[in-house]
Amino acid sequence: MRTTVIPVGGPRPYEVHVGRDLYGALPALAGEAARAAVVFTRPVQHYAKHATDVLVGAGLMVVPIEVPDAESAKTVSTAERCWDVLGANGFTRTDVVIGVGGGAATDLAGFAAACWLRGVAWISIATSVNGMVDAALGGKTGVNIGAGKNLVGAFHPPVGVLCELSALETLPPEQVRAGLAEVVKGGFIADPVILDLIEADPVAAVDPAGSVLRELIERKVRVKAEVVAEDLTEKGRREILNYGHTLGHAIERAEAYAWSHGHAVAVGMVYAALVGRRTGRVDVVDRTRSILRSLDLPVTYRADAWDALLSAMRVDKKARGASMRFVLLDAVAVPATVVIDDEDLLRAAYEELTA
Ligand SMILES: NC(=O)c1ccc[n+]([C@@H]2O[C@H](COP(=O)([O-])OP(=O)(O)OC[C@H]3O[C@@H](n4cnc5c(N)ncnc54)[C@H](O)[C@@H]3O)[C@@H](O)[C@H]2O)c1
């Protein structure tokens, strides 16, 4: 099966490979490395083993590092354990770290690589939809601390990303759907064909073996690649990627991160559509709800939560000062960043969300 290669430009360009059985690309990506650390979680150990076999076959010394699953991987203590293993095995500046798994595992692996000897190369082998279309590219790496999620990290782009589509067949279906929320976001902010494809066949959109999910993933990767190439460190254009995230982040906080990011962003996109309509922009409320419902993603939230959500939106780390910034749509694929402090308007939009 063909492999699609999507370039990501910017100060440290790299490529995203999308396809099946991509492990053969690893030795070239590893470059001059003599050692590779393969950081993985238990549910994806099979894919980590594939990567290991290929690298050993190419003559590298491979050190497997299994880390706790999902968000439990993203701690300073797990990163420290990785550094201890790298130290014990004599990892030098030309060696490489490889993250295998969902976004949590690749965020951790990238962070471990960013700090080891002040930065060594790393490769992301993304195995979840969210990992492929969001976490693996853009160069953000990091861990969580008591004060909040993703508060400690570094911009450290990988030297290459492999979106291993065969892995999606073992990804739990609810994770496939949750990952599609970020894909829908890409449709609204930049690539309306994404929306057309889901509307035409929402069942095919979640089929891990089919061509529609593959096309959706490729399209969202291109959207993100184009944005982050222009703005690696989130000083400008990258802000459009926050569509649906102002309320989405607030819901994640209110739920103490028990809700998936995709579910929170889904509700956040409906809210952004409602706020957009109230501020005289394009009306995508019905379309947003219908697409998200067709993917079994949530479109509403608790009516009694407004005060808590408003406070959370005010202190979101991506807010500037106390003003609340929203990405809204002037038209589909025409996003604009807007500061809104009109609490009555925001509350009224929330009432529509929960009605
Ligand atoms: N760096 C970034 O720019 C960025 C962007 C978005 C999200 N993130 C981060 O990504 C994380 C969320 O990523 P996620 O949604 O992939 O969640 P995750 O990494 O927690 O993975 C979800 C679950 O699916 C399992 N899994 C992954 N691939 C699998 C497969 N092929 N088969 C079976 N099980 C599989 C994982 O082991 C885990 O149990 C969060 O920590 C978030 O902060 C980072």
Question: Can you walk me through this structure?
Answer:
With 355 residues, the protein is α/β, with parallel strands linked by helices. The chain contains 14 helices and eleven strands. A seven-stranded mixed β-sheet has the order 1-2-9-6-5-3-4, sandwiched between helices. A two-stranded antiparallel sheet has the order 7-8. Strands 10-11 form a two-stranded antiparallel ribbon.
Break the fold down into its secondary structure elements and pairings.
Elements: E1 4-8, E2 14-19, H1 26-30, E3 35-40, H2 45-57, E4 61-66, H3 76-88, E5 96-101, H4 103-115, E6 121-126, H5 129-135, E7 140-145, E8 148-155, E9 160-164, H6 173-189, H7 192-200, H8 202-205, H9 211-230, H10 245-254, H11 261-278, H12 285-294, H13 306-314, E10 324-331, E11 334-340, H14 343-354
Parallel strand pairs: 2-9, 3-4, 3-5, 5-6, 6-9
Antiparallel strand pairs: 1-2, 7-8, 10-11
Helix pairs in contact: 3-4, 4-5, 5-6, 5-9, 6-7, 6-9, 6-11, 10-11, 10-13, 11-12, 11-14
